Amino acid sequence: MRSSERSSHKQFGSASIDDAASVYLQGSYEDQELANFNSEAFGTTDWNSQHQDRFRSVDAGVRFGKPDGKFDGNVSFRYAKGTSEIGVNSSFSGGGSYPDLDTELTGGELDLGYQVNSKLELRFRLRYEDFTSADWALEGVAPATIPTVLTLGANPYDYDVVVTTLSFRYSFGGGAAKPADEPEAQP
């Protein structure tokens, strides 16, 4: 078996507006190509496969906080998509392309915090995620569908989820720790 691979990857940055708020936009893409050369006859390379994978993602949002430190939060959105293409050439069975493998993720998050006092913080989070995939190796394969495979059946992932949390954090003990170079107050 012999293989060759080529890959490229790029990522973009983010920017801050000021101390109380920032807007960010991040994105990335990745392209990969892979070729495998194999043998069914144990001597010559009589079949090969070509794979091309493309991944794209973007993440955008706003972070904010009031200068008095009472409120802070983050609102974000994310999107990702992946596609895999597979082609096969064989001297025994011909050649052709398999159906594409696709995944897609869309989601977002709302995160809000409120500092009640120096010891108590309340936080609320709401997160949504929608994920779908198309996988020809799973779709339509039910128990005993293929003569040489016995399976319990499976479906490609496809879900929507909403998660909410309400939490609090309470600090026990004294006030904030003093830096080592700050002198103690004298009575």
Question: How would you explain this protein's 3D organization?
Answer:
It is built from no helices and eight strands. The chain has strands at residues 2-11, 21-38, 47-65, 71-90, 94-97, 101-115, 120-134, 158-170. The model has no long low-confidence stretch (mean pLDDT 80). The chain is mainly beta. The chain has one domain (2-170). Helix content is 0%, strand content 61%.
Secondary-structure map:
Elements: E1 2-11, E2 21-38, E3 47-65, E4 71-90, E5 94-97, E6 101-115, E7 120-134, E8 158-170
Antiparallel strand pairs: 1-2, 2-3, 3-4, 4-5, 4-6, 6-7, 7-8
On the 0 to 100 scale, the average pLDDT is 80
Total domain count: 1
- Rg of Cα set: 27 Å
Percent strand equals over 45%
User: How far is the first residue's CA from the last residue's CA?
Assistant: 80 Å
* Shape label: elongated
Structure class: mainly beta
N-to-C SSE string, H for helix and E for strand: EEEEEEEE
Largest sheet: 8 strands, antiparallel
Q: What's the helical proportion of residues?
A: under 10%
Q: If helices are DSSP runs of H or I spanning 4 or more residues, what is the number of helices?
A: 0
Show unreliable segments: none
Strands, count: 8
Features:
eight-stranded antiparallel sheet; mainly beta; 61% strand; 187 residues; 0% helix
Task: Briefly characterize the structure.
This protein has 187 residues and is an all-beta fold.
